[in-house]
Amino acid sequence: MVDRRSWKGRRRFVFFVCYCFLILFIVGCENQPKKTTKQIEEKKPGEVTIESLSLSDEYTFESSYGWLDNDTIIYSANKDDEHYLFSYHIPSKEKKELFKTGEMIAEASVSPNKKYILVYSTSDSSVANVHFLTSSGSKQYSVSIPSSELSFDWNTFAEDTVLIDSFYEDWTYKTYVCNFEKKTLHEVKIPQPFAQWHSKDSVLFLQWDDDSPRLSAPLMKYNLESNKESDLYKDVITFKANKKVLLTVHEIPEDKNNVVYMFHDWEGKELQTIKMPVISSYSDWMIPSFDINDKQHSLITFQPYEAALMDQYDQKFQLSLYNWKTGEKRVIGDHLESAPLLFSPAGDKCLYGNKLEQIIVLN
Q1: Distance CA 57, CA 51 (A)
Q2: Which of 294, 298, 242 is nearest to 274 (CA)?
Q3: Which comes out higher in pLDDT, residue 125 or 141?
Q4: Which of 130, 138, 162, 182 could form a cystine bridge with 134, CB 3.0-4.6 A?
């Protein structure tokens, strides 16, 4: 949802098209709806505050993964061949052990309602072990899945359900729906991997054509009960869906120096369009890291100072906050490295960094 994104980077397995980079590099597209973008009101920044988390002690820090509440995160660390998942309360600097395993913790993710945690651990390249915990660390369900790599997406409409893509070394895959409260795991046939939930029983996916690769694809809706699919938007580069809003990213056909971020509600109404300069190469584009927050109606993203070719851009990035409800833009900081971002629940700060090891204070 999470293309949890990066981190480590987000462990997204490039599978179905060689142009598609799902962490920092995401492909360009060929067509875009011809709506004009709305004028964004810009506010100037104060000095950005970036704080490093003090997560290294007798344990070796690996990565942080997300927020349990507005002041508490989860992170993994190792010691003496054991791997641990901790919660960490930032104001008090107190930590609590939630999970322990002899396997490497490849990824962890907090459910959108902050009540549950998914931990993905592995000891070899053929089996992935998925563990579901409560936010206090109580074990709910564990299941082993044949896999060399996993991706997953929480169902924001039914948060006891997770969509899991299991990839194999030959790049084939299977998709499962896991209900950890019912302790069930069953395979579903979705035409492409990396789908995201659209409702309790339907998902969204990009319909890449393996026989005729393109730099964009139609965004499709697929009903898991009826197995019927329908076309939502054409020529989409990438998208992010949650319970209240859908974000799609498009090219502007007549303007190769910019891309457009389009916000839609689930009735199909366009809420806002935001135009940004883009860094490109001859075969793809660089879309910097971003995240969205429903409470604040906000998109936070890094953006280049000007359009340029990738091998000619020698600057860093501006960190900006956009409100898709009011159209306001606020510059948070200048000349920063583009790295993964993850909003806190209240939207007043972000985890930041390739291991989400820093915090950016937004207010």
Answers
A1: 17
A2: 298
A3: 141
A4: 138
Could you identify the residue written with the tokens 């009735």? 267
DSSP, collapsed to helix, strand or coil, labels residue 40 as coil
Number of H helices, E strands in the chain: 0, 33
Pick the closest to residue 190 from 148, 233, 222, 237 (CA basis): 222
- Exposed, middle or buried: residue 242 (CB in 10 Å: 0-12, 13-18, 19+)? middle
Residue 231 and residue 68: Cα distance in Å, rounded? 35
- Tell me if 108 sits within 8 A of 117, measured CB to CB: yes
Alpha-carbon Rg for the chain, nearest whole angstrom, is 20
Q: Looking at residue 14, what is its pLDDT?
A: 36
pLDDT tens for 175-224 read 999 999 999 999 999 999 999 999 999 999 999 887 877 777 899 999 99
- pLDDT-derived band at 17 (thresholds 50, 70, 90) equals very low
Q: How many CB atoms lie within 10 A of CB 147?
A: 25
d(CA 318, CA 309): 17
Q: What are phi and psi of 261, to 5 degrees?
A: -95, 125
CA distance 221 to 241: 12
Geometric angle at alpha carbon 6, from 30 and 134, rounded to 5°: 120
CA atoms within 13 A on the CB side of 22: 22
Indicate the burial class of 234 (C-beta count within 10 angstroms; 0-12, 13-18, 19 or more). middle
251 Cα distance to chain centroid = 20
